[in-house]
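Assemble and predict.
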Amino acid sequence: MPERVEVTISVNGRKHRRQVEPRMHLADFLRHELGLTGTHIGCEQGVCGNCTVLVDGQAVKSCLMFAAQADGQRVTTVESLAEEELHPLQQAFKDAHALQCGYCTPGFLMAAAAIAAEGRRPSREELREELSGVICRCTGYENILIAVERYLEDRGEVEAVGG
Amino acid sequence: MAEVVQTTRTSLREGRIGSSVSRKEDDRLLRGEGRFTDDVEPGHCLHMAVGRCPFPHARILSIDVSQAVALEGVEDVLVGSDVVSRSDPISVLRPVADAPDLGFYAMATDVAVFEGHPVVSVVAVSRHVAEDAIGLIDVDYEPLPHVFDVESAMDPRSPVLHPRVLKSNLLVKRLTGAGDPEARLAEADVVVEERFSINRVSPLPMETRAIVAEWQAGARELTVRHSTQVPHLVRKQLAESLRLEDGAVRVIATDVGGGFGLKLGIYPEDVLACLHAMRARRPVKWVEDRIEFFRASTHGRESVHSVRVGARSDGQITGMFDAYAVDSGGYNSPMGSPQLTSHMFTGPYRVNDAGTEHSVILTNKAPVGAYRGYGQPESCFVRELLIDRLACRLGRDRVELRAQNMLHSQDMPWQSTSGATYDSGDYEACLRMAAQAIGYEEHVKRGRGPGTDGRYTGVGLASFVERTGYASSKFLARRGSRFGAHESVTLRANRSGGVDVYNGVSTFGVGTETSFAQIVADVIGIDFDSVRVHLGDTGASPLNTGGFASRTLIASAGALRQAAEELRAKILRIGAFMLDSDPEDAVISRGVVCLRDDPNACLPLAEVYDRAIINQGMPPGEEPGLESGAQFEPEAAAYGYGTAAARVSVDPETGDFDVERFVMVHDCGTPVNPVLIDGQVLGGLAQGYGQAVMEELRYDEETGQLINGTMMDYFMPTAADLPEIELQHTFVKSPVTPFGVRGVGEVGTVPGCATIASAICDALADFGVEINRLPLSPESVWRALNQAKASREVRS
């Protein structure tokens, strides 16, 4: 059988130690090793951004990173956002009808969470550019832009997403 | 006179028909707790990988699987001869009428007819190992000459793809129409004739196809989790191909990550995964990767049109004809060839003499299947550009020429030359609203430019009528369909005081759980939150047709209404009995049944439901239980309609263009959930925009291979690409559907290409530019400018 490497990755605040094949990418690690299936795979070549997660607070396309490269790092996925209630960012998506099939949604949520974590308030045009790394085929984006803008506006001070 | 829906007070009715209540689907999807097919993995699951032909057309001389079989972790290998001996061909759900059956097996046997055609499959303990094994399989191919497009396909020197069934690559040719278009065209004062090419595109849902198959041999039961829009049709098709009885197959589609027509019916890989599961006696999962997707999932559109329109000098259109050839790829796919191009050819115009000649032609490319719009964006594009040119030839205003020829509400119902019966509508109102919103008159007054930046401004318009819901099985019967037209629902009260709704469509983004619950809540008079909608499981839902053709709500609404009325009546009978009164004196109000004249005489619904379910103290003669079921088949299709308008600026030096504004005016009939309707229209418009200016699957003429079959190379709209879209609706109730609804799922795709092309041609009218080919790119505009310049120089 192929060789394996040991990785220790902190995901949503919890440490996981696993033996993985070197070729396993982070998205597969999250989905199939940890059962965190909220991170979705759409292209496996870093274009669609549906697999976006935070690695040490930065938005990363998890299909473009090997699990072994994430060794020792902090990963945050969509599963970290809601507690009992939806996270305000998720609520903003719901209120604006910013999702249809919901497949790309975790990618947009994490891309937006990265912007929020940096405490930025991009203009509509900047936001269009920043979110262009995640592709949605259902909504036409308008409602996603509205949801993210409203959230960034209403949020007041920076919340700790990505911790 | 058309009845217009009053929409002002409906916002008060939270969760009822007309309310923009937020979706039931959202919470689980937002939390990342959706259950897409790949999210579920049974114990001891094997993973499938598929080896595919890299050539567009090749004879398979030999396949050596010995190294793959020897690889640790590999459990089973299938080649074409195994598949032919163990399964039957995949049925075409909706063939073009009179098209012969090509015998589409799940795997190529001797000859592969498109790049991506499966030739071998492996199951192993992981996807990695399965793919490693595919890499170890040695297939010896003899590449054959290939057929690249519809023109070369009909060249007598070209190879014939399916010589056992066909003498040429023409699968079928069909004439439709009425009157005598040739005579009208011959006697017309003006005839405009053009040739248009429609691009081949990908529907591209973000979730690729996926299946998990489990076979329980002793029970003779195959359970399939599938990313599909049509669970019950998939069950039927799988049973047929796998030589099982329908009852042996259960299909479950939970969350589906987008469909757009691509996930209608089964594909070869579905049969292969099931065959492996049945042989290996272990669950088998296959999740298509994006590289496979571009080559093996059906493509959308691609056709070539020779179109003519004739008119009197006063502008009255007298005849129209479209001879078009559809490039169907290597097979007649499970959903056949898009069939509404001919049906909607004449659009919103009063034309008594019109027809189409529709040829379906086979080429060595991936099969074309259904894609949102199903032929209607094509007819809108060719018709509306032709009418622009007719206006130009006649020296007439484009809006006025359209208005002159449009059908009016008093003409309805109107039977078009294709046999479509337009139910109702005020087409001209949408045209005028769109012209007003885009500033058409100001544009005509101001002129096209150039502006100070040297750019020219153009305004484009496209009007359309759209078939939504294909209506009855009678319509389909003459067209070779292998499915019907009914929807069905079971409503079941539960002892918590809620109502469970069971239906066989799946959840793929259109908000079905929400809109169904709104209708049930509205009809019974209960809380939206007390209704739970269970979708997509053939083992739990009554037999139905499925979610496509903008039909789900139209067809299901009738079943929901009937079943909900039945349940309501029984609740009132039992409740009134418990309150010592008569049913006509009782009302249901949110969570209780009470007496009309005595609001204090109230019973919680949970008590009434409980009484019925355990059959204690029921009215005499009342059957136990509280459940209702209904089947409904619409009598007629509802025709949506509207006009889109765009304003563009174009740089005549470089061909660079910018879509500055895009307006859509559309009639949705009675809106069940206005926010969801906007979402559907906006999403469709984004796909239409993508087809208009970005998307095209390109094959290399020499090698026959797909050039841009990755997401890196196939450009589709991102948030940075789309203009802000301005939506307006009108609300004319359809007289032929439950509640007066019209379908809205596909409409956005219809006018995009026509509108933007119309605007660019308008901007460059002074240069004599005419664009007849999609997609529009700065390069294609620049080439059209150069061509126009060259032909002017030749003339002068």
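Chain A touches chain B through 58 residues (CB under 8 Å).
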